[in-house]
Design brief:
single chain, mainly alpha, Serine Threonine Protein Phosphatase 5, Tetratricopeptide repeat, two-stranded antiparallel sheet, 21 helices, 65% helix, 1% strand
């Protein structure tokens, strides 16, 4: 669809002035008008907004002062945020944001059980309805800095709805309220199955199924249940909301992901499950690192560590230390990064599955994941330190170990692809483009088996770097040709 309707832009005004803020960000991005238009169209397809068809003339009108309709302001905010590694709001771009309803925007939500259930129900229903209509995630804004950290700190404040632990009912067919114990166990096993599918296939394949299951659980939470049942249902809701957030993050729906993470933390608090809450905060921290906000990531990880310090298992503590290292690396603090890496390794040595089995949500954090996270910390240090070969040399053997372990693991294909890409970036830092090209090609082969925009984006960025630094090399030229054929920049709505 062409014309104003096709790009979702308001009619031109006769007294417009050039949008100097948008123009400044645009010039610094290094993009052409055609490149920005192409990226807007690709992101719109990801959101299911297939009616949007932007071109260079439309971008020129935005720069001249025309204000586009949603979801384009939100899309532009996400694109520039990713480009510059920091949150670039709609207002920063000189654009007008749509008015937000309190229930679907912001993260400062009431910490009470009834309102947590209502918000989970409303948001999951809205997500499902908008996805079916082919229009998803356009009314949300990312929060960062104090507006994110301060509300999350209330996770530690005891609430009136916190329930004391209760003994498990006896008998496999004993009913707890209207749900039997086997029915609750089925909900838990279904969540574990969804988590396994995500690790194998990426976030794009089963995201709506997870959201649908979450909505069903919130329906159960709105019915009268004994305390023991409510606690279990809140735990299932927290795990599903975290997984919905993780899958949204994986396919590039960042504001949607953050909203699910926040709701998951609320549900974990109602379940009285501090380790699960710390895991949710670690997912939020990872997202902040991805968005170029390592200070926020560190605040979230420290909150997670403090909140679960007396109850988290060694595996969970090791994961939190590894994420702490990632935050310090991206802040350019090598001493603190290395200390956190050592703590992650030392704590993981205390993991013994036969002694005290971990819950399913943390079992992904294997020896391979430990090596992968720590090697990425060293790799990130190398970039922050101006492409330091010393830190790249630290990363190489650790990341090679992660690649070798993931190569034997069919259940975590996405992690295998991400670590292949990580190794490719390490070899670029070491100015070994031929080896980097081989690894990037292997990553592309694996990427075709998963639906993860995060994987595809990292492959494209790595190849872009190779082209910038070694564009005349035959292996790099072949790699760019293969990328255009095998991973074209198109995406279906999720």
């Amino acid at each position: 669809m062409g014309g104003n309707g096709g790009s979702g832009t308001t009619a031109a005004s006769t007294d417009k002035r050039p949008n100097e803020l948008l123009g400044s960000w645009f010039v610094r991005s290094g993009w052409s008008k055609g490149e920005l238009a192409r990226q807007v169209n690709r992101r719109a397809r990801q959101l299911g907004a297939n009616h949007i068809s932007t071109d260079t003339s439309r971008v020129r009108r935005w720069l001249d002062g025309e204000n586009p309709r949603e979801p384009i302001p939100r899309i532009l905010s996400e694109l520039f945020s990713e480009r510059f590694g920091c949150v670039v709001s709609v207002e920063d771009l000189g654009l007008r944001a749509a008015r937000q309803a309190p229930s679907v925007s912001g993260v400062d939500l009431p910490w009470t059980a009834p309102q947590t259930v209502a918000l989970l129900s409303e948001f999951s229903r809205s997500d499902l309805m908008l996805a079916r209509r082919g229009f998803l995630g356009t009314s949300l804004a990312l929060s960062a800095g104090p507006s994110l950290i301060e509300p999350m700190q209330r996770w530690l404040v005891p609430g009136p709805s916190a329930l004391p632990p209760e003994p498990e009912p006896t008998g496999s067919s004993r009913h707890i309220g209207r749900l039997s114990k086997p029915e609750l166990e089925l909900l838990e096993s279904t969540t574990a199955m969804f988590r396994k599918w995500d690790a194998q296939c990426g976030g794009g394949l089963r995201r709506k199924a997870v959201v649908g299951q979450l909505h069903e659980v919130t329906d159960l939470l709105q019915e009268p249940q004994p305390d023991a049942t409510n606690r279990k249902l809140f735990k299932v809701a927290a795990e599903l909301a975290e997984l919905a957030g993780w899958m949204s993050y994986d396919v590039g729906l960042q504001p949607t992901a953050q909203k699910y993470f926040v709701l998951a933390l609320h549900a974990a608090k109602e379940a009285g499950d501090k380790p699960l809450g710390s895991y949710v905060l670690s997912s939020m921290s990872r997202q902040m690192i991805h968005l170029g906000r390592p200070d926020d990531a560190l605040e979230l990880i420290h909150l997670a560590q403090y909140g679960s310090r007396d109850c988290a298992s060694p595996r969970t503590q090791s994961m939190l230390y590894a994420m702490e290292a990632r935050a310090y690396a991206n802040m350019g603090q090598p001493g603190k990064c290395k200390r956190a890496v050592r703590m992650a390794e030392d704590t993981f040595a205390d993991v013994h599955d036969w002694d005290d089995p971990d819950p399913d949500w943390i079992r992904f954090f294997s020896e391979a994941e430990l090596y992968g996270e720590n090697s990425h910390s060293y790799r990130d240090l190398a970039y922050v330190a101006g492409r330091s070969p010393a830190y790249a040399s630290l990363a190489e053997p650790v990341m090679q170990r992660a690649v070798d372990l993931f190569a034997k693991d069919d259940d975590h294909k996405r992690s295998y692809a991400l670590n292949l890409i990580g190794m490719a970036t390490v070899h670029l830092l070491q100015r070994e483009p031929e080896r980097s090209a081989v690894l990037a090609a292997e990553a592309m082969t694996v990427a075709k088996k998963v639906r993860s925009e995060r994987v595809n984006t990292r492959i494209r960025k790595t190849i872009d770097t190779a082209v910038r630094d070694f564009g005349e090399l035959a292996e790099v030229i072949d790699l760019t040709d293969r990328l255009a054929i095998e991973l074209p920049e198109t995406a279906e709505a999720v």
